[in-house]
Every structure is written in structure tokens, then in C-alpha cells.
Amino acid sequence: MTEDTVGKIGSVRRGRMLAVAAAGALVLSACAPSDSGDDAGNGGTGGTGASAGAAGNATLTVWSWRVEDKAAYEKIFAAYEKKHPGVKVDFKAFKATEYNKILATGLAGSGGPDVPQVRSYGQLQTTVASGSLVPLDGKVDVSSWDANSVASAKGKSDGRLYAVPFARQTVQMFYNKRLFEKNGLQPPATWADFMKANITLRKTDVTPIAVGAKDDWTLPIVHEVLAAPRFGGKAFADAARTGKTSFTDPAWVDSVKVVGDLKQYMPKNVTGVAQTDAQTLFSSGQAAMIPGGSFDLSVLQKPDPTLQIGVFQVPPPPGSPAGSSATTPGWADGNFAVSKKSKHQAQAMELVQWMSTPEFGQMVADEIKQISAVPGVTYSDPLLKQMNDAYTKNGSPYLLLTDFRYGAPSGTDLMGKGVQQLLLGQKDAAGVSKDLDTGIKTWFKPSGS
What we know:
The chain has 449 residues and is an alpha/beta fold. The protein has two domains: 3-166 and 333-375, D-Maltodextrin-Binding Protein, domain 2; 170-330 and 412-440, Periplasmic binding protein-like II (D-Maltodextrin-Binding Protein, domain 2, 3-Layer(aba) Sandwich), CATH 3.40.190. Helices cover 39% and strands 12% of the residues. The chain contains 18 helices and twelve strands. The protein has helices spanning 3-9, 70-83, 96-108, 125-129, 147-151, 177-182, 191-202, 219-231, 233-241, 250-261, 275-283, 297-301, 345-354, 358-368, 382-394, 399-402, 411-424, 429-440; strands spanning 58-64, 87-93, 115-118, 164-165, 167-176, 207-209, 287-293, 309-312, 328-332, 335-336, 371-372, 395-397. Strand 1 (58-64), helix 2 (70-83) and strand 2 form a beta-alpha-beta unit. Helix 8 (219-231) packs across helix 10 (250-261) and helix 10 (250-261) crosses helix 18. The radius of gyration is 22 Å and the shape is globular. Keywords: Signal.
């Protein structure tokens, strides 16, 4: 699951990525050599269930919420073990909705992991505040990485790097190529093209846009996919985080209205449709499009491997700010860190440093089928490549996750509930936006203030 989805369902999907959620790259600043003996003097106290053997030998425990990736990680770590004799990696995956509590307990006690997979952005801060992670400044070089991804692994109050991002997620519109071709449609280049597709498909027995609004955590993603250009994408994000604008800005309000206006092209009784139901509608050919994350790709392909899936960025709706263009919102979906209580900090640090190399990043792309956070990784899957290239060319932050999840109520929670109320007819776009702005301002402080 993704970092985003885990936020809501513990969040539901960030265990599926989710997140889903969620690698790293480049030349490392000096890899820490393995110690001789039992790593005494590395600052480790307590045990992690890993027992030291001969000089430099260690069994490292790695914890994760990505149960669905267990086989892939075992393959990845087997490759690492071949190049690091004496080091064994024991990968343990836990249910995503229970992981945060399990990890907090493990890091506080003596039976936790050497290398924990940790959350991103706001959800990382509790772990940072606990003092259970080893800072990585000067040990891992992420200076050339995407700044949005690197921010996911930093402490908000001290700005220090505490982990290495493992994957990047993007959101975009998936579409059924056969249904588009059958109805004489092409991926839209303009908003008029997009509306033509919706109107044409609605005249058939096909649902134009599959949305699972019963699961409100999906709705901020739906909003980003359908309307990020309408509120201004990255430009609005920069202004919002510095306090130069707010979520009552007319551009934001109108972007929320776009989602409401498109309700007629979504499934009937959309607020009673679960996300899994929406995915089934798409995978079975009963819906032609579905807004979703890169983490959804394998889920959509699994029921029918012959399904011809394409992706596109929704063009800017009418009234979009000058200079606004189609964009691919994205964020980093989790990170790997070093526990201060590890008995094997030298070996754990070396493993995490390796996780910031192109070798690891390429394996994330090839084995886990995720977009790696490491720069320069290549993608054999054409859709992963297209999504990565779109973000690289014209990406924007998934704003409510990357910048407005550092307090409660979070931006994604407020927006999810608000858009659900919009689709139920209980609130208009202005009311949804006002509630979002009011809720966030109970804790948000603009950057630089």
C-alpha cells in the first residue's frame, strides 16, 4: 500500500502498495565497513533478535508493512548476501494496518528490527521524535535526488535525514485501450477531448470513470488526478506551504467543484462503491478509466493479464491558472532507516547505504514493480516508464500528503471526508474547502514562519 493510503486505513492501502508504500541512489559517502567482533562501540544498546557471529558476521532483521512484496524482497536481499559474505538478511513483513504500532513497540524494546521500513513525511515524525533512528547525514548522499522524495525522509523540526526513500508513487488516469479504440477515442490532449470521451462512453453500457468513493482515502487522489492543473499544481503547492495562499483560494475551490461536476460520469451511487469494486469495474471492462496511483498497476493487471492498459495526464480544465499544464502528482512511499538499538549498526548502515544505490533501485523497479526513488533507474515495464517520465518532465507534489499531514486533522483526512460529502450532496465545493482550510490551520505553520 502507499504512504497515502496507509494514512487513512492505517491505513488501508498503504499496505497494498497504498502506498504499495513507499530506494535511493547515487554515489554514497563512504560506506561504513563491517566491524570485527560484535559491533561494540557503535552506539547500539539492547538486542534486535540478530546474533553476532564471527568477525563482521551478522543477521540483520528488516521489518516492513509490504506483505505483498515478501518474495521480491527475499530475492533482493539474497543478491545482497552474495556480495556481503557473513551477512544474512531476515525480512519480516507485517499487516499494514497494524504496522505502526508493531514498529513503535519494536523500536522501543529489545526485539525490534536492525533496519525498519518507516513511513514518510508527517507519518515519519513520531518515529523521529522517539529518538530511535540513526541520522544519515554525511553517510548517504541524496543531494541529486528529487527534493520531494528526500523531504519524505527528513525530520520536520531539525531537517536531518533519517532514512532512504525506497519508492516513488505517482497518480494519473488509467484507461482501457480497447474500449477507447472501440469508441473511436484517443488519450485526451485537451479538456474538450476528455469531456468528449466521458460523454461518448456514457452513451454506451460502460462507466466512464470508476471511482470508489465509499473509501474516502481515495478521494484526495481522485481530486489530484482530475483537477491538479485547475488549482495550479506545483505553483499552488509552493504558495500554500509558505502561507501565501490558502485552501479557500478560488482556484482550489473550483478544483474541488471539478470533481463534483464529473460525478455524472462515475458509477451510480458512487459513495456506496468501494475502491476494490471500482478496480473490478475497470479490470473487467465495465469501466473505461480509473484515477489511481502507480501502486495500483499490478492490482489492475492481475485479474486479466491481457488487459491493455494505458495512462494519461488529465488536461487542464477551463479556468486553470495561466501557465498551468497537465501534471503528474507524486510522493515518496516509505523509507528504510537504521535503528539506534541495533547491535550491528555498521552492517545495518552498510545495508541502508546499499539501498541508496542504482543496484537496489533497479531491483525495486524490476522485482517489486515500483518506481524507484533512485535517479537513473530504467524501466522495462512501459507503463512504469511512462509514469516515471511524466513525473520527471512535469511532476508536482501530492500536496495534502507531502505537506499537510504533519498534524491532526490531516489534509488527506479532511479532504477525503469533504469530497465524500460533496458527492453525497451534503456540501458544496466552497464548504469542503473552508472545512479543509479551517482544520489545517489548527496546527499548520507556513514554512519560514
